[in-house]
Amino acid sequence: MSAQGTPNVAARTTKTPQGAWTVTFLLFLFMVVNFADKIVVGLAGVPIMTDMKLSAEQFGLLGSSFFFLFSISAIVVGFIVNKVPTRWVLLTLAVIWAVAQFPMVGTVSFTTLLICRIVLGAGEGPAFSVAAHAIYKWFPDEKRTLPTAILSQGSAFGVILAVPALNWIIVNHSWHYAFGALGIVGLIWVAAWLALGKEGPLEDTEVLAATEPKIPYVQLLTSRTFLGCVIATFGAYWALSLGLTWFTPFIVKGLGFSQSQAGFISILPWVFGATIVILTGWISQVMMARGYTTRISRGVLGSVPLIIGGLILTAMAHVEGAGLQIALLVVGSGLCGAIYVVCPPMLGEFTPASQRGAVIAIYGALYTLSGIIAPSVMGTVIQRAGTMLDGYLTGFTINAAVMIGSGVIGLLLLWPNTEKARLTRGAAAQGTTLKGAVSPT
Q1: CA 357 to CA 348: how far, in whole Å?
Q2: Which of 49, 192, 319, 430 stands 20 to 30 A from 146 (CA)?
Q3: Which of 41, 180, 25, 23 lies closest to 121, judged by CA?
Q4: CA distance 349 to 415
Q5: Half-sphere exposure (CA, 13 Å, Cβ side) for 250?
Q6: What is the mean pLDDT of residues 244-268?
């Protein structure tokens, strides 16, 4: 069968409700704040390690601590948004982010810093999943890839916009004040969301929960596309969590740049990644409009860049020169962004809307487990390496292997266009079996 088919005419005529793009922009800003919060520890890594006399392993633990409750929180909140309006859940999460920043403004112990990052991670764990679920209440399936790309773009812009400002505060004042600035920005977003944030009109959470046919969660969570999304994004998030925690220390301590120089260099992966995200969203939507199956326009389009990015990263340890090494790291890790754009819409294809919040949240909870592992692994590798640069390059080689493996598995498993029919048949068959088991005949 051809990868192309006849586009659904009814789907093409579905209108996007008024206000959809306003909410999309607000949630884009939501993710900007989210990733600014994430990047600050990595950006201030060298001053923090110097002031608090932390070893590489301790700093790796600090980077991983952000993810200790990240996954648990994502799952819990994911089930909550199946029944509770996302408007209020998003507001609560943003308040937690802001409040968690302010203790770092004054003198702080390593334990306090660790606890605040754990609390922040618990608040940020559900962020992308809840935001995606909220956006899907404003856009029909065939129009979701581009707004998902814009939402994902918030991560890149969060870094691009925050790094120069935060680095200026760190260099000219103190890393403590960088945290305080983020707390204030978080409260500003809360005020904007209170004024303009709304619930999408395409889906009524309470009505769907009561009337929509359900598919057992065990079938949804063991489907090949769900597993493919988790595994593929696990590899991408390995690279992202290393970028958040270790990229700036690598530039300063591994390659010998100053903190001021590193602030600008640290933007490069996110600029490139932002380009990849927008291109992926646009290309995917164009391919779908031309009749390509979502296996091609989402599954293949998201997995292949992950494999190519891993292959590029493997070259880092075999080239000389800081400029070339940075270029390989920027391009290799930046290609990972494609998978974030396509996986939530793929899951939304076959998951009933009343269960979608939980499924996307569980997906996020599982793939972000690499955020616990990757920074700590890098810290341990650096600590035990012969030289610091060798440690960094070994760590990025491990990253490359994870990306390639996860990309290949994703390429094999991502078949969203056939998943819904298969799951629906499976649920119907199970229901018939159960009905027969209790029938007197």
Answers
A1: 9
A2: 192
A3: 41
A4: 11
A5: 29
A6: 86
